[in-house]
Amino acid sequence: MSLNITLGVSTWLWTSPFTTETTALFGKIKQMGYDAVEIPVEDPALLEADKVKQALEENGLKPVVCGAFGTSRDLTNEDPSFHKISFDYIEQCFQVSSELGAKFVAGPMYSAVGKARLISPEQKKKEWDLAVNNLYKVCQMAEKYGQEIALEPLNRFETDLINNAEDLMKLIGDINHPAAKVLLDAFHMNIEEPDIERAFSQVGDKLIHVQVSENYRGTPGTGQTRWDAYKRGLEKINYTGTVSIESFTPEIKELAGAVCIWRPLAESQDGFAAEGFQFLKKWAE
C-alpha cells in the first residue's frame, strides 16, 4: 500500500536564518523532486512574504511554516513579558503563513527549547497550566488568521514538558480548541516513543505534519530508524499531509550549537537532500 503524501525538506538543512534570499534554494529543491518546502521563520522581519510567495509559485512548491522557540519565547515562564514576546512573534508567524498560503504554524511553541530541568510536581503543574491557557489564546489568534497550530513533542534533552504523543494529547485535551493539532518528528519519536505505530494511533486525525531524519539526524535510510513502523503508523490513520526532512548544517554555528550537531551528517547537504528524497519516494510507494 502506498502513502498518499507530499514530500518536503526544511531550508534548515542548508542555512539559517531564513531570509527572502533563501528562496534561491527553491529551484534546487524542486529539481530534486520535492513538492513542499519547510520555511523556518526565525525572524519574520527578515523575509518579504510577497517575494517568498512568488518564488514558491514559480517553483511549484507548497509552503510549510515552522516557528523557532528560543529562550525569550516561552509561554511557560512566570514572567508575563515572555508571553507577550511569544504572542507577538507567533502572530507574525500566522501573518506570514497566511500570506504564503500555508495552513498552520508548527513547532514546540508551548515552552522554550532547551528548558529541561527536574522540577517539583507543583512547579510542573504551574507551567502546564500556563502552557494550556496561553496556547488557548494562541489558538484563538490562529482562528483569526484562518490558521491552526501543529504542536511538536521534543525529546527529554530539549524539554521537560511534552516528550511524546501521549503528553501532547493530554495537553491538547486541556487546551480544548479545534485549532490545536499535532506535528510528530521521527528524530524525537526514535528517542521517546516505545511504540511508533501506537504514537500515530494516539494522535489520529490531529496529525497535520510529519518531520523525518535518521535516528542520528542524518539522511533517511542510512541509520536505525524502523521505517516500516512509520509507514504502517501513517497508513493506519490515513495520513495525507506532508512528510518533510528536517535536519541541520554544521556550517551555521549558532543553529548547530542549539541542536548539538558537532560534525557533518552527510558528505554534502545537497547529497543529504537528494538521497533523502530518493529513499522517501521509494519508502512511500
UniProtKB/TrEMBL annotation:
Pfam families: AP_endonuc_2 (PF01261). Residues 28-263 form the Xylose isomerase-like TIM barrel domain. The keyword Manganese does not apply. InterPro entries: IolE/XylAMocC-like, Xyl_isomerase-like_sf, Xyl_isomerase-like_TIM-brl. It comes from the Bacteria. The keyword Isomerase applies. Keywords: Isomerase. This is Sugar phosphate isomerase/epimerase family protein. GO terms for molecular function: isomerase activity.
